Amino acid sequence: MKNFKLLLFIALGLIGVSFLIIPILSILLGTPLADIKTAILSKEVVNSIILTLFSGLISTIIGIVIGIPIAYLIAFKDFKGKGLLESIIDIPVMIPHTAAGIALLSVFGTRGLLGNMFSVFGIKFVGTIGGIIIGMMFVSITYLINASKEGFKSIDRKYIKASMTLGANEFGTFFHIILPLSFKDIISGSIMSWARAISEFGAIVILAYHPMIAPVLIYERFSTYGLKYSRPVVFLIITISLIIFIILRLISNKMKNFRDK
Questions:
Q1: Burial of 164 from C-beta contacts in 10 A (0-12 / 13-18 / 19+)
Q2: d(CA 52, CA 133)
Q3: Inter-CA distances, 16 with 8, 12, 40, 112, 147, Å
Q4: Cα 178 to Cα 231: distance, rounded to the nearest angstrom
Q5: pTM
Q6: What pLDDT, in 10s, does the model give residues 71-87?
Q7: 92 near 141, Cβ under 8 Å?
Q8: Dihedral (C-alpha) 67, 70, 74, 80: value to the nearest 10 degrees?
Q9: pLDDT (tens digit per residue) in 117-151
Q10: Can you give the three-state secondary structure of the chain, one letter per residue?
């Protein structure tokens, strides 16, 4: 009976892994080399990928700056409306991202409250890199906040009490105790946030169709020319994302091992 359960779990696991990996392999192994070379030499494709990675990085950095304090407050403080705040943080994951794009447009558009305010300083979000970053951050910051929050909650409170007892203030305890002990969770959340940012389409296509990031370019090429012209761009973005993911995971693990020594 135990062997049957084990075999059942293995079979279901293989089905799940196959479901994830087969479509990716179909792109990586089924895209003609000539098409890949053409895409690599295309200035439009290269610029869209660079813009995607850069905007995702900036949105993640901003997310770290404003997201970690939110995660800290939720993990360590009790206040009215805490449950409501956690629900609000999860909203971007639940709502359709085209709806998110319309919501952002209503606020950051030319006639929106913040869009109108920033336009006084010559800052616009519709059809700009700023709009891309805003769209990416809106749909991705949830992953960073939640991962950081869980990392903070997992810290043994005796370390925090010991720090306070030895004379450290809350600010010093955060930087010297809490942050190092939850570093891996923050890094994991940052990686997931960046990954979610560079894959966003729905919110950005409404707020900033141009300049084109890779997901928008893929959509335009597919809807205009079909699978043959969109496939090489998909190949490049998947390949680059896999390489970056592997590098980031290796760096994260090495930093964790170094810290634990």
A1: middle
A2: 9
A3: 12, 6, 32, 44, 24
A4: 45
A5: 0.89
A6: 999 999 998 999 999 99
A7: yes
A8: -140
A9: 998 888 999 999 999 999 999 999 999 999 999 99
A10: CHHHHHHHHHHHHHHHHHHHHHHHHHHHHHCCHHHHHHHHCCHHHHHHHHHHHHHHHHHHHHHHHHHHHHHHHHHHCCCCCHHHHHHHHHHHHHCCHHHHHHHHHHHHCCCCHHHHHHHCCCCCCCCCHHHHHHHHHHHHHHHHHHHHHHHHHCCCHHHHHHHHHCCCCHHHHHHHHHHHHCHHHHHHHHHHHHHHHHCCCHHHHHHCCCCCCHHHHHHHHHHHHCHHHHHHHHHHHHHHHHHHHHHHHHHHHHHHHHHHC
- The Cα 104–Cα 98 span in angstroms is 10
- State how far the alpha carbon of 207 is from the alpha carbons of 35, 108, 110, 133, 215, in Å: 30, 8, 11, 10, 14
Residue 194 near residue 60 (C-beta atoms within 8 A)? yes
Mention every residue, 6+ apart, whose C-beta is less than 8 A from residue 137: 59, 62, 63, 197
For the chain, which domains are there?
42-214 (1.10.3720.10)
Indicate the pLDDT class of residue 3, thresholds 50, 70 and 90: confident
Mean pLDDT value across the chain: 91
